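ok here's Uridylate kinase, seq below lol
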Amino acid sequence: MPAISNLGATTRTQPLWSPDKATVVFVLGGPGAGKGTQCQKLVADYGFKHLSAGDLLREEQDRPGSEFGEMIKSYIKEGTIVPMEVTVQLLENAMKSSMDGGNAKGLFLIDGFPRKLDQAHAFERTVVPSKFTLFFECSEAVMEKRLLHRGETSGRADDNIESIKKRFRTFVETSMPVVDEFEKQGKVVKVSAERGPDEVYDDVKRLFKQRGVEPITLKFVQTQEA
Ligand SMILES: Nc1ncnc2c1ncn2[C@@H]1O[C@H](COP(=O)(O)OP(=O)(O)O)[C@@H](O)[C@H]1O
Ligand SMILES: O=c1ccn([C@@H]2O[C@H](COP(=O)(O)OP(=O)(O)O)[C@@H](O)[C@H]2O)c(=O)[nH]1
Ligand SMILES: [Mg+2]
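and the structure came out like this:
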């Protein structure tokens, strides 16, 4: 991944792309709601590039020589939101390299972002306005169970009960206002995320269709049996 040597993105006054050059669907929901799991399914069927803000931050945290590594580590452990200049720049860099590298249509699922109003405003003002937000609704009891299970193998510093409780609090206090704001604009697609991954995905597909987003059609060569 390219280094984030400058954090200029958020100082621009115009978006880098117009919505006809880049289609961004934000994917939100509490920690453990299943954002990453559903994004993987969507990538296979719709040709989106999946960008997880959390993954990009963890990658920058572990990049040798990063001036932001220690800062990112402590925000993640505490379940708080890394200053938006860093995250918006990481996303912009990843979007540029995806579009240079074959994602000519510029289809993006941005997973776990924006988690705070300042990030939402900065991204839409300086990178590209989003198409809509896919929001996974899930109770804390279910999310906690999933995260503790994930923590058995994830190696993540924040999949433990102390960090999970802090992340829930950040989600309610800081991230839900983002969903509320997009909802007022009619830009939220809500899905109940408590059933199994395939049942949840059936709803996602149905709702994408309603929003005019269709799967990639694969052309099969028909073979005839003698
Ligand atoms: N619908 C589901 N039912 C049960 N477990 C799920 C479901 N979706 C995801 N999981 C599991 O729950 C954990 C959290 O899912 P993940 O996709 O990483 O969520 P998020 O990105 O929202 O934190 C993972 O271990 C995943 O395998
Ligand atoms: O825009 C973002 C997205 C994530 N994070 C941090 O990264 C952590 C993990 O995010 P991720 O999306 O990977 O967690 P998930 O919800 O998928 O469990 C969050 O708790 C935050 O501390 C952040 O600061 N800004
Ligand atoms: Mg995730």
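fwiw The first strand starts at residue 23 and ends at 29. kinda neat tbh
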